[in-house]
């Protein structure tokens, strides 16, 4: 079975033509009306003659409605099936959608992209599309280490096996499609391109892509520094603060003639308190971007810091007094030991990412079958 998923926002009659051609070719058609409003009711009513329509009152973004469409498909249809996403503006030929599905059926573990290749100037590509495609292509190659010619194509086919992982990919607007490529590249999943017709109707004027806002969202995904790297940098800053304060304090207390155990313990506690404050602030604001109340996350962080401090201090004294290791080398060993534990607890407990919206959004009308309103 082949299913065409069409996200649509304020479409014209090209949506109806696209749905009809796909239906006549044997596709099950699922259309998602992304809050187009009452003015476009007749268009969707005509399109409902050829498939199911999910209609939302408010605009939610291409990524959000694609995932909602996939949830609907997953609930309504039994595997095996192949899904192809098709734009509503008539820029994808039905024959190309068929070819993408055929490729996906042969390679069920691969994401198939309908790639609009350079045709030697036979089709005039709008300047914003040509410039954006080239820049994004190079940025993606540098970030992902994988070459994809058409990173912005909306014509994508995949088997039912890939629907669950696609539902877990973040992004509610155009950045969802870029995140899809990044996730597949990072997970070493195959991405296969096949050449398709290049169609730009009236200079692509019907596109709802915002060249400023949506470009920022996309490049934020491409250029995003992984959280673990930012955590490492934050930890490095905290470590330098901690180690600098520790070295200064242990030297000062040593000059006062204090016993080694006391010097190590008091210096480690004071240095840890200072570095923990610095580390918490950086992690909360810049690494995990937590929306949790400061008091709540600060309390949880304090418990973690106290636990790590206790373990850190015990291990530090064992290494210095028991193993006879240098005070300075022992500090390095203990910091490396507790780094991973700290990352896991902060990532998944203290600053865990809570979903901004419900997994099952409310407020849509389902038009089923070939025009039957449910």
Automatic annotation (TrEMBL):
GO cellular component: membrane
SUPFAM superfamilies in alphabetical order: Nucleotide-diphospho-sugar transferases
Domain GtrA/DPMS transmembrane: 230-351
Localization (cell): Membrane
Family annotation (Gene3D superfamilies): Spore Coat Polysaccharide Biosynthesis Protein SpsA, Chain A (3.90.550.10)
Recorded GO MF terms: transferase activity
Gene Ontology BP terms: polysaccharide biosynthetic process; protein N-linked glycosylation
Membrane topology reported for the UniProt record: Multi-pass membrane protein
TM stretches of this protein: 255-274, 295-319, 325-345
Keyword Acyltransferase listed: no
Keyword Transmembrane in record: yes
The entry's keywords: Membrane, Transferase, Transmembrane, Transmembrane helix
Top-level taxon of origin: Bacteria
Pfam family, one: GtrA_DPMS_TM
Chief place of localization: membrane
Domain named Glycosyltransferase 2-like: residues: 15-130
PANTHER family: DOLICHOL-PHOSPHATE MANNOSYLTRANSFERASE (PTHR10859:SF114), GLYCOSYL TRANSFERASE (PTHR10859)
Annotated protein name in UniProt: Glycosyltransferase
Source organism: Porcincola intestinalis
Organism phylogeny: Bacteria, Bacillati, Bacillota, Clostridia, Lachnospirales
